[in-house]
Amino acid sequence: MRGATHAKWVACAAAAALAATACGGDSGGGSDSGAVLSSSWGDPQNPLEPANTNEVQGGKVLDMIFRGLKRYDPETGEASDMLAEKIETSDSQNFTITIKDGWTFSNGEKVTAKSFVDAWNYGASLKNNQKNAYFFGYIEGYDKTHPEDGSKQSADTLSGLKVVDDRTFTVKLSQKFSTFPDTLGYPAYAPLPQAFFDDHAAWLSKPVGNGPYTIDSYTKGSQMSLRAWDAYPGADKAQNGGVDLKVYTDNNTAYTDLMAGNLDLVDDVPASQLKNVKADLGDRYLNTPAGIIQTLAFPFYDKNWNKPGMEKVRTGLSRAIDRDQITNTIFQKTRTPATDWTSPVLGEDGGFKEGPCGDACEYDAAEAKKLIEEGGGLPGGQVKITYNADTGSHKQWVDAVCNSINNALGNDRACVGNPVGTFADFRSQITDLKMSGPFRAGWQMDYPLIQNFLQPLYYTNASSNDGKWSNKDFDKLVDQANAETDTTKAVGLFQDAEEVVRDNMAAIPLWYQNGSAGFSERLSDVKLNPFSVPVYNEIKVS
Amino acid sequence: MGRYVARRLLQMIPVFIGATLLIFLMVNVMGDPIAGLCGDRQCDPATAAQLRKEFGLDKPVVQQYLTYMGNVFTGDFGTAFNGQPVTELMSSAFPVTIRLTIVAILFEIVIGITLGVVTGLRRGRPIDTSVLLITLVVISVPTFVTGLLLQLLLGVEWGWIKPSVSTDATFDELIVPGLVLASVSLAYVTRLTRTSIAENKTSDYVRTAIAKGLPRRRVITKHLLRNSLIPVVTFIGTDIGALMGGAIVTERIFNIHGVGYQLYQGILRQNTQTVVGFVTVLVLVFLVANLLVDLLYAVLDPRIRYA
Predict the structure, then answer these.
(1) Taking CA atoms, what residue in B is nearest to A54?
(2) A131 touches chain B (CB under 8 A)
């Protein structure tokens, strides 16, 4: 069976190469539904398990081989039902989830309520070391399967999960969380087949899911070949024969390969090529907003940064940064100056508003100087912006931000960059609360909800509240929003909470990041979703 | 001879232990690797503690080192963060880099020594001056410039080669990367051979050989070259280790998934097991190559004896 499909694929590819004929029948417009495209990839950092994958490269694959209860619209980011037939609640705390009939994994196993419950229990259990375990933190019983202090877990399964029948299960949360159903599109909530539990090692070497693609072969560290799964029951079937993900260590090489016709798609145009990418690729260059915002966070555990009046200093610093100029010159317009603390990909309904930051995000040297003086001046007369120098082009923009601050304040020593050698060291200094001044912070959303841009970052002791900011009003508004059953009202309350963040300038918003991609002439219908990952199943190959 | 080899092998032990200990300490100084595992957010403390325990990072460095070395002697190099055993990474990376090194060494030997002999015999002539100039340029231009330039010209502009090397990394794909990797050493080999040849050309034994009426070809290959090659062989021998470990730049440019690539990933992700494992093997390669070079001396010059 497998051999046969494979042979057919080879024949199609050969035919396409020889005569550029369409293969596979039902394709229109000269596209070839049997043809395979190649795409750049990075080596995933962690083993490929839904609840263990927290970076883009592994997430890319999960998005191709898994479908969850919900799916985020590639264009609008809106969560809509995928495997879920209905998700019902009357109190925002107890949910009854019914899944659709007729879904199977690519190995033939049926997707049942148990597939979800088992997968979530596995993800939440401390002994399995899953890095996304905290996603199950809202479900009742999490503290037993995943004790926060690292002591021995007293349960292997979440008490809040119950299988009712083959297609129904119930979820009891430990607190009210009105937007919980909309978080279920995140890959960590994907269902897992029994094969995953029976032979874990075999599954890891060749993961099996229920998405539009299956993994044909996987050579760790160099290539993964995904093929369209003919029997895929969903509506979003793959429009191409498959995708070969090739690992590149350097996105410059990937770009060179694209130029030489050796690769079809790069989803990360290197910064050094941004100047010529328009001339090189024309319409085949994508630069679209993604759910990523860059900010400067502050160490609120440091007395100097937490005394009265410092909110004026922080606002002053924000006003001393010329965002327009930096995004134009350093990022070649692949960043958009931020006007709030969320992202435009949320859309109006999702809670994005143009400009809540207002004046505070606008460059005004005189005003900046005045505000900082009123607030008591910079602690120690100087700010040091800490960043990691190993990846990204952080040095460039940090230097530019400092330059802008120095110019505005008319003081060469007002701001300096403070590079840290490796990302791991940077992270451990943050975790150990060793920051003495502002530091680089980036947030890539997990799901397109305003809640995800605020709660994990600014709620007291939240998982990513690296600056340890704490504010009662903010916490209260978030709690109210989560308890609100009406989504529009919930969003409104979150927006009120965002205003608290603004009034205190808990973090300086810098810019929204765009996703970038370039592709060859063979491809059409290439899009980036709000997570800046290509929507592979919609790509057509000619 | 046997005693000499035994003594050299024994000397390797402290070098080996010292080198691995240094690398172990250096990687550890860089900070807590688990902190970088969860991306731009904090790992939840319980999972982080669990991972630390799994990788043995909760123990003192000395104890980690001892456990590690104990495991290494049983052939267990530990596990990388993505769940792959380091030995698996090695078995995929080393063959590729060895092929690349072979290509590079062949370039050094064939082109380097030939050019060296030609220029050494024709010292001061136009060909000598031009080769000297070229080698000067090659030495002064960094490898990544040569690499990117060749990649752009041959790969994109003229389309003679593919700009990146495939997973298989066959010999023919490695010709250009091998040349780039060899370029600087190649220039040194040329200059070293040239000086050595020019120096020995006027020596007594060469004059004797010529006076005996031996054909020129025989004088050059049997008498002149054999003696002149001793410094060159030393250089090439030590270069084997340097090429394997120093291929990071070349491998990155041409996307070759060899030792340099794994080391780069290991350092970036602060994966002690990967970095120490690969460096350990590289240290061994270095030591063995040096031993072989020393033993080769006797073949080239029978006056050299080992006690």
Answers:
(1) B38
(2) yes
User: Would you give the distance in Å from CA A384 to the centre of its chain?
Assistant: 28
Cβ-based neighbour number of residue B218 at 10 Å: 11
Q: Which of A222, A422, A423 sits opposite B167 (nearest CB)?
A: A222
Minimal Cα distance from B55: which residue of A? A129
CB contact under 8 A, B265 and A43: yes
Q: What is the pLDDT of residues A260-271, one digit of tens each?
A: 999 999 988 888
Helix (H, G, I), strand (E, B) or coil at A465: coil
Nearest alpha-carbon partner for B164 in A538, A254, A526, A108: A254
Query: What pTM did the predictor assign?
Result: 0.84
- A510 neighbors A319 (Cβ within 8 angstroms): no
Buried b (16+ CB within 10 A) or exposed e, A246-285: bbbbbbbbbbbbbbbebbbbbbbbbbebbeebeeebeebb
Q: From A107, A102, A105, A132, select the one nearest A120 (Cα to Cα).
A: A132
**Amino acid in position A302:** D
Name which of A148, A249, A250 is nearest B45 (Cβ-Cβ). A148
Are residues B287 and B12 in contact, defined by beta-carbon separation less than 8 angstroms?
yes
A308 phi, psi to nearest 5 deg = -55, 145
- H or E element in which residue A298 lies: none
Q: What is the pLDDT of residues B114-138, one digit of tens each?
A: 999 999 988 888 989 999 999 999 9
Q: What is the enclosing helix (H) or strand (E) of B117? A: helix B114-121
List the helix and strand counts (H, then E) for chain A. 19, 19
Length of chain A in terms of residues written: 542
Determine the residue among B26, B32, B38 to mutate to test chain A binding: the one whose Cβ has the most chain A Cβ atoms within 10 Å.
B38
